[in-house]
Amino acid sequence: MRLALWPRSLASRTILTLLVGFALVQLLGLLVHTVNQMTLERIEQERELATRAIIIYRHVALSPPAARAALLRHETLPDGASVSLTPGPPDRLDTHPLPLAARQIFRASLLAYQLPMRLRPHGVYLRAFGQPPRIIISFGMPDGRLSGRAGTVFGVMRPLLLPRAKQWLTIISPLNPPAPWRSPGFATAFIVMMALGAVMIFWAVHRLLVPVRTLAEAAERLGRDVANAPALPETGPSEIVTAAIAFNTMAGRIRRFVEDRTFLLTAIGHDLRTPITRLKLRAEYMEDEEQRVKMLADLDEMEAMVAATLAFGRDVTTSEPVTRLDLATLLRTILDEAVDGDPAAADRVSYDGPEHLTVNARALSLKRALTNLVGNGLKYGDAARVTLKLLPKGIAQIDIEDDGPGIATEAMEAVFEPFRRLETSRNRETGGAGLGLSIARNILRAHGGDIVLRNLPGRGLRARANLPV
Ligand SMILES: Nc1ncnc2c1ncn2[C@@H]1O[C@H](COP(=O)(O)OP(=O)(O)O)[C@@H](O)[C@H]1O
Ligand SMILES: [Mg+2]
Question: Of 14, 181, 293, 420, which residue is 20 to 30 A from 190 by alpha carbon distance?
Answer without folding.
Answer: 14
